[in-house]
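Students often ask why we bother predicting the structure of a whole assembly rather than each chain alone. The short answer is interfaces. A chain on its own may look different once its partners are present, and contacts between molecules only exist in the joint model. In this exercise we take two input lines together and write out one structure for the complete complex. Read the inputs first and try to guess which parts will touch.
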Amino acid sequence: MIRIGIYGYGNLGRGVELAIKQNEDMKLVAVFTRRDPKNVKLVDPSVAVYHADDALKMTNEIDVMILCGGSATDLPKQTPFLAKYFNVVDSFDTHAKIPEHFANVDSASKEGGKVGLISVGWDPGMFSLNRLMANCILVDGNDYTFWGKGVSQGHSDAIRRIEGVKNAKQYTVPVEKALQAVRNGENPTLTTREKHTRECFVVAEDGADLNRIENEIKTMPNYFADYDTTVNFISEEEFIKNHAGIPHGGSVIRSGKTGENHENKHVIEYKITLDSNPEFTASVIVAYARAAYRLNCEGAVGCKTVFDIAPAYLSPKSGEELRKNLL
Amino acid sequence: MIRIGIYGYGNLGRGVELAIKQNEDMKLVAVFTRRDPKNVKLVDPSVAVYHADDALKMTNEIDVMILCGGSATDLPKQTPFLAKYFNVVDSFDTHAKIPEHFANVDSASKEGGKVGLISVGWDPGMFSLNRLMANCILVDGNDYTFWGKGVSQGHSDAIRRIEGVKNAKQYTVPVEKALQAVRNGENPTLTTREKHTRECFVVAEDGADLNRIENEIKTMPNYFADYDTTVNFISEEEFIKNHAGIPHGGSVIRSGKTGENHENKHVIEYKITLDSNPEFTASVIVAYARAAYRLNCEGAVGCKTVFDIAPAYLSPKSGEELRKNLL
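Now the answer. The structure tokens for the assembled complex follow.
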């Protein structure tokens, strides 16, 4: 049994708890939180909840610590700190800061003789992996990533900060026409506006100026101004009924050419459709936690990403079984 | 520069020659053939062509030998034989015999201190990889593989063996309704007939009995009897004009559930659409040839499959570059 700890218990941490239950070779040992442990309710109440400060007391009881904090402020500190004492997996997703995060985790993991696996999930994660592999196969080609239809937490938060907004959810939606052109191998050049639209569902406070809210959303720089945005005002009941979930998904597509005269077109698409973004992300993370543990058992140390993990390490099955049944 | 040899020069060998041209860190050193080398015309006439018997004279000039023979009789002998002297990559695709082939290549590669990479291409190959990864992520789920629309060489050959048939091409076509049900996460149970249809384009000899030919095709056991098959008789001109290519493709789909009450559905699809089956297969093989070479340089020996290769080994770029630009 691989003994897992969860560090941070929000949507992702809960998803990790559920994913561990689906994997028979794993056991959740403890959850660590910065809140009062008494106030954290797990799916399985028999699992211990400790304060985050007590994590280092458990270095002998935990094979892999899965970090479920945010990329903005939590993970840049937490992952390097814990990587010295545990094999760790995180889902750090601030693309521009990955090289710096990698370096910090690498030195900590090496110091502790552990494996630190960063930026695991679907983007970065499975999407990155598919970008890399498709690039290596179709050398002469173009990459496209479409996100959605799905909830952008950041954009939903931005709407909620507007005066008079009680609740809001924003869906990022790929433009079907653009998606079809890419799938046909037409290699279009697409602007931001041509790739995605943004659909907002807003619950306004009583008496709020709806025109002002709609205008503030549509003109918000970085978040909405560069997109075709639609704003729908709905009741609280409708919001709870139809917009409670956290679905997401998207496609990574590469189209390329081969042949003596580049006459043959090929398209590779990796597409995911997810009812629950955090539960899917957690499922990816848990598979990679197995890999981190097994690699460390074999003597590997230091920071790694999905690029560095041979796929067989993700599976509890033997190489023989995999070759016989899945190759 | 990674120095490549090609052993066997048919459609796949030609595809490998073209793929090497797209990769700046590789060089094609020589092609080996069992035919008279004078009769083998390469895309690049400046590359040397030798008789297959002379391959072992070139052990110092070739870093990776890519085997492009058939799985029925060529590769079971050729790959273990050459694996003792070269790093090798093959596309062995007789699923049932992979364990035996693996064992033979493994002992030869280990004896020679080389890496032998088998069953590389798209199925087995990229499809296997996606089956494995999707299984590890969505533990509670179902697998589906759809092939096509594309040319089945084996089925086309079977039609050509019928008396009165001058030429023929058979397309395997996924049933759109089944594909949609799978993509919707409905987890249907599908019979052979419900998953694929078979479309045949046949050029008959003058005066041949078309009804007999059509009946022989549609009732052929193993090949056609279990499918809804359509037979189209066409002229030689139309055959040459519309059916000269070797397109193929398909989808590997896994749908699964997560959540406290299995309430969240997820679908992962890996889909390829190929104008040229052999050129795409060759492009995959060439990327894995890079991995075989690099692994052997690091001291790895023995037989491996796509399951054993960390994706970063497929790319000529450094880990730093990959993390910065593709993660």
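Check your guess against this: Chain B touches chain A through 68 residues (CB under 8 Å).
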